[in-house]
Each structure stands twice: as structure tokens, then as C-alpha cells.
Design goal:
The structure holds two protein chains of two kinds. Chain A is built from five helices and four strands, in the order αββααααββ. Chain A is mainly alpha-helical. Chain A has a two-stranded antiparallel ribbon. By secondary structure, chain B is an alpha+beta fold. In chain B, a hairpin with a 7-residue loop joins strand 19 and strand 20. Chain B is globular. The two termini of chain B are 36 Å apart. Classes of the chains: A mainly alpha, B alpha+beta. At the A-B interface, strand 1, helix 4 and strand 4 of A face strand 6, strand 7, helix 6, strand 15 and helix 8 of B. Strand 4 of chain A pairs parallel with strand 16 of chain B.
Chain lengths: 176, 441
């Protein structure tokens, strides 16, 4: 391409995209990566259950794990302490407080997702998927959102009906 | 400038333009304009004091000073100009460091004073080993290194970042007695430089059915937030520099997501992964934390935008008035919806208002500094500021805010977060001794 043609094209680009940014060929410096190469980071569980791992767990086992690894911050009965209450709470949250799993979270998948990525606070990512399922089952059962003996797995967890799901108002719908 | 020069030559005294001593905003801008009352009792007293002792050479004028350091810090006389850091025991709730607005001027927050909230401490990330992965509903998942991002055409933009919980004490049913830093310190403004995230997503090839991205950090909470793809393609940045230097460890070193005007928590620090999706992740922070009960029994969802806000930085609690006379009322206004159009100031609790001068530059989604001269007569005053943005939004009065968003039934702890996205008018009460307190008016 002649210099003149380059100058002409650059001029057109500058007109089209504003003074500061000439139309630059995107550098394409990202390296293609295979899903298997970022599997350890691929943590997001979506409300429809997408990306929930295989396996499952029940409340009884989750209660044991909770007693061992969670009570130090969340209290013996999940009533809260150094960290938030995770079992029980008022029927309705107000500006005075009281947002809890049972009266607030729109989706049960959030419980699994948050435990798996962030908990325990001092040692995140040390729980197995099975343990996360068991803890999730324990919290949901203790909050009376599922029966005591129902296994939480990729099929059952997204189907848990959370009482507050339809109570939200999207503040700026035009921004989505 | 032509508008200003019109007033420059005018020698007439500046008139009071609103109740309780508010003066014309042009008084501070125009040279040669005499402030009516500037030679009042207070100033005369200062003149007498100055004459008592003749000036002499100071010790620092008599010998060479210190070695020039490679990285200059503020004078040790400014050691009080620091952030306040809570939760010194580092309980799992995280730590918050608040910007001392009352001790700063201009619109740029110095890097060491930029607010931060850490949910799991500040990680020590080796930039050479850090990776950013883009995947999900894209043609080709991609992995970027810091070195590779540095080869893109970087863009710079000045803008504010504000925690969704900034100003939360204003949800209290009674005015919480705390200074500006405690009330509004979770907001700062900097120049950010980085790569538009849209450029990287275009290279990965976004599926037309995609509507959201979920961004994730590399620190121990692996914090995730969902962001509408619309916002990402509009003005989201993978920021690498903050005020000209690499972003601070507490701001996401070596890279963060920066979303001009959107609540701070969404501006994922230590950005390591962006998943393109057709639905929001409903992560912990968007499901529970950044959602608030409303007076009508409903709960907010996807609030995202930090709406138009302003507050007076001086005078403010702790910056008391020593004597009657002329003062500059100055403060900060900003909006997540664009430029600040107008700031009005009141010295009589909202009975009358005067338009403040807006300092240049006046940038969209950035701090805008406002200013107005005021003659304090030594009596009680209630100082307020109210901002309008270019989208037409106006900062609510406290009454309007409480009607729409509610308030607590009893005062929460000073550092508590009863709600989010609080932007009502802030009122500073000045008593006859010149002491400044937080009041509701």
C-alpha cells in the first residue's frame, strides 16, 4: 500500500472515529485457550444451573462440615458472629438489617457459588465440590427451604424455589 | 472566558445573591472584584497581629535541605492527610479505607488516598504470572498477559469510582455525627488508563445472543459481579494505570475492571476472568449486598448507577470557622449519568439558593469542583449543596430521598451499611461559635 493511500485511509478513519483514535487494526494478542486449560478457574454457577459440577450432597454431612469449618465465624447455629447469619433470621429484611438466605436470596445457586469461590474465608477453594453441595444442602434445609434428606445436585439445586425471588425491582431496566 | 472578562473590570462590591451571606460566584473568579465586607473586623485583627513581629530568616532558609528521594511523598506536616481504615483486627467482613475529602482540593484523588474496600486483604500478585481469560459465549476463548495488553492502544479517562455503600450513614433516621470522610469517603476520582474491554471482546467474537458478562478477581474472595454487555461495550476499561503510574495494589494491581459511574464493587479488582453469558450470575454481591429493601416492601435489584450527588468539603465537620468574614464554600459534585450541569448552594437550610461556580475541567462521570464565596456573619447557618446532571437528574432533598428509599428506625453504627446508593442533600450546621456539625434540614 502506498504511503498516500495509508494517509488517506487514516484520514477517513480519523473522521469516522474522532480525532484521538485512528482506525487501528486490532492487535489480536490474546492467545487462544482451550476450556480444559482454564477449568480450575471456571467457577461461575448460573441461576439456571449452568456449570454446576457432577456429584451431590445432603444436609447431614453438610452439618458436620459446618461444625468443623464454619461455626468459628458464622456461629454454632449459623446465627452469625464475626461473619453474617446464614441460618434463620427475620421474616422480612428492612433498612435496620436482617437480609438472610431465606428471606432475600432470589436463587439457591448463589449459596453454592459463593461457598465454592470464597469460603472458608481463610482458606477458599479447599472444599471439594461434594462438600460444597453438602454445605449448601445443610443451609437450605436448616432454613426450611428443602426437606432434610433431599440431595442437592446439578438437577435439584436450580429447582429450589426461593421465597423472595419475585420481590425485586430492577432500578434501571434501560441499562440492561 | 468572555463571560468572565465582562466582570473583571467591574470594581463594584459583590452583592449577596442568596440568604445568610451567599455571594455572587463570580467574586472568586474575577480579578479586581472587591468583596464587600472583605475588610471587616476579622481581617483588620489579622493585620494588627502580623505587624507585631518583624519577619526574620527561618532555620530552613539557612542551610541546604534534605536529599531528593526517588519517590517523593507528601510533607510530614501533612501526616494527618490519610485514609481512615476500619476493622483493624481484620475480621472476615473486610477492610475499608476512606478518602479525606475535607483535606483535599481539585478533582483528582492522590493514589495513596484513593478509597478501597478489600474483602480478603490485598493480594501480592506477580504481574508476570497474572492472566486474563475471556470465554463463554465467544467464538474463541482468549488468554491475555499484562505484556500483551501493554501493546494495545491504551486510552485514558478521568472519572470517579464510588462504593455503592458510600454515604450510607444518610439512611440513618438521625444525623450521624461524623466527619465528611466517614460519611462520604468511599468515593474517589482518578485518571485511569487501559484497554477498552470491548476491543478484547471483539477479538474473542461475542455471540449476538449474549447480554451479560461475569467478571472475576484473582484475590482470595474470587469476587464476581455481573455487568450488562451494553455497559461493557459502551465504556468499560481493563485499567492498568492510575494517575499515570501502575494501579495500586489496593486498586487491583496489575489490572482491574473500571466501569465509569457504576458502583465500586462491580469494578472487579485483580481481573482474571470475563465470562460472556446470556444471563446474570446472581452472585452473592448482586443477590444480597447491593440490593436494598424499599418502603413499599419490594427490594432493589441491579441498581448499578451512582446517581447525581454533591457535598460541601469545606466548611465541614472538623473544619470550624474561626471568625466572621469571607469564606469559600467548596465541594465536589458527580454523577454516573454524565456531566454535572449545575450546583446550587444554600446557607439557610434550603430557604434560598445561589448558583455555585463550576471549575474546569467538567468531565462526564468525574468529580466536578464547585465553589461559592460566603460572608459568615457569626450567626447560625445551614450549608447545603444540590447538583443537577446533564441527564436532567437532580439530587434529592432528604425528604424526597426518604420517601423513595426509606430510612432506619434507629441510628446504625457510624461505619454501617443500612442501604446503598444514598445521594440526598448533605447539610452542615454552623453554630455561633463556628463549629460545624452534620444536621438534617
Amino acid at each position: 500500500m502506498s504511503m498516500r493511500k495509508v494517509a488517506l485511509l487514516t484520514g477517513i478513519a480519523a473522521l469516522a472515529f474522532g480525532a484521538g483514535i485512528a482506525l487501528a487494526e486490532s492487535p489480536h494478542l490474546g492467545k487462544p485457550i482451550a476450556p480444559s486449560d482454564f477449568a480450575a478457574w471456571d467457577l461461575n454457577v448460573l441461576p439456571d444451573g449452568s456449570n454446576l459440577p457432577p456429584g451431590g450432597g445432603k444436609a447431614a454431612e453438610g452439618q458436620q462440615i459446618f461444625a468443623e469449618k464454619c461455626v468459628v465465624c458464622h456461629g454454632q447455629k449459623g446465627e452469625g458472629g464475626l461473619a453474617a447469619r446464614v441460618i434463620g433470621g427475620p421474616p422480612k429484611a428492612t433498612l435496620d438489617g436482617g437480609k438472610v438466605i431465606a428471606n432475600y436470596y432470589p436463587y439457591a445457586t448463589t449459596v453454592f457459588d459463593f461457598i465454592r469461590r470464597s469460603m472458608p474465608w481463610n482458606a477458599p477453594r479447599t472444599l471439594t465440590d461434594h462438600e460444597v453441595y453438602a454445605l449448601t444442602a445443610y443451609l437450605l434445609a436448616a432454613n426450611k427451604l428443602i426437606p432434610e434428606d433431599e440431595e442437592m445436585n446439578a438437577t435439584t439445586l436450580p429447582k429450589v424455589k426461593m421465597p423472595n425471588r419475585d420481590n425485586f425491582v430492577v432500578w434501571f431496566p434501560d441499562r440492561i | 472566558m468572555s463571560k468572565l472578562s465582562k466582570y473583571r473590570d467591574r470594581e463594584a462590591p459583590i452583592q449577596q445573591v442568596a440568604g445568610n451571606g451567599l455571594l455572587d460566584r463570580r467574586a472568586l473568579l474575577g480579578r479586581g472584584v472587591m468583596l464587600a465586607g472583605a475588610m471587616g473586623a476579622g481581617t483588620a485583627g489579622a493585620l494588627t497581629g502580623a505587624a507585631a513581629e518583624p519577619l526574620a530568616e527561618a532555620p530552613w532558609s539557612l542551610h541546604p535541605g534534605d536529599q531528593v528521594p526517588p519517590y517523593q511523598r507528601a510533607s510530614h506536616y501533612e501526616d494527618n492527610v490519610v485514609r481512615t481504615v476500619d476493622n483493624q483486627n481484620r475480621a472476615p467482613g473486610g477492610q475499608r479505607a476512606r478518602t479525606p475529602h475535607q483535606l483535599l482540593r481539585g478533582i483528582i484523588t492522590p493514589n495513596g488516598l484513593h478509597f478501597t474496600i478489600m474483602h480478603g486483604g490485598i493480594p501480592d500478585i506477580d504481574p508476570a504470572q497474572h492472566r486474563l481469560v475471556i470465554h463463554g459465549m465467544v467464538r474463541q476463548p482468549l488468554e491475555f498477559t499484562l505484556d500483551s495488553l501493554m501493546r494495545y492502544q491504551l486510552v485514558s479517562r478521568i472519572g470517579f469510582t464510588e462504593c455503592g455503600g458510600n454515604s450510607a450513614p444518610l439512611f440513618s433516621n438521625e444525623p450521624i455525627q461524623a466527619n465528611l470522610q466517614a460519611l462520604h469517603g468511599l468515593s474517589s476520582c482518578a485518571e485511569w488508563t487501559g484497554v477498552p474491554l470491548a476491543t478484547l471482546l471483539d477479538e474473542a467474537g461475542v455471540d449476538p445472543k449474549a447480554k451479560w458478562i461475569i467478571a472475576e478477581g484473582a484475590d482470595s474472595p474470587h469476587l464476581t459481579r455481573s455487568v450488562p454487555l451494553k455497559k461493557i461495550m459502551d465504556d468499560a476499561m481493563v485499567a492498568l494505570y492510575q494517575n499515570g503510574e501502575r494501579i495500586q495494589p489496593g486498586q487491583g494491581y496489575p489490572m482491574r475492571l473500571w466501569l465509569p459511574g457504576y458502583e465500586g464493587n462491580m469494578n472487579i479488582k485483580y481481573l482474571r476472568r470475563v465470562q460472556v453469558t446470556d444471563q446474570p450470575g446472581m452472585t452473592y454481591y448482586e443477590s444480597k449486598i447491593y440490593s436494598d429493601p424499599l418502603p413499599n416492601g419490594k427490594d432493589t435489584q441491579f441498581y448499578f448507577v451512582n446517581e447525581v450527588k454533591s457535598f460541601i468539603t469545606s466548611p465541614s465537620p472538623g473544619l470550624n470557622l474561626r471568625e466572621p468574614g469571607i469564606y469559600e464554600i467548596t465541594g465536589i459534585a458527580y454523577s454516573g449519568s454524565g456531566r454535572i450541569d449545575k450546583v446550587m448552594v444554600s446557607a439557610d437550610g434550603g430557604k434560598s439558593w445561589a448558583e455555585a461556580a463550576l471549575m474546569e475541567p467538567r468531565l462526564p462521570k468525574a468529580f466536578t469542583r464547585f465553589s461559592l464565596p460566603w460572608r459568615w456573619d457569626g450567626g447560625p447557618a445551614i450549608l447545603q449543596s444540590r447538583a443537577w446532571d446533564e441527564s436532567g437528574a437532580v439530587q434529592p432533598t432528604r425528604e424526597q430521598f426518604v420517601a423513595a428509599r426509606g430510612q432506619t428506625s434507629k441510628p446504625p453504627p457510624v461505619g454501617g451499611f443500612p442501604g446503598h446508593h444514598a445521594n440526598p442533600i448533605t447539610s452542615w450546621g454552623v453554630d455561633a461559635k463556628g463549629e460545624v456539625k452534620h444536621v438534617y434540614a
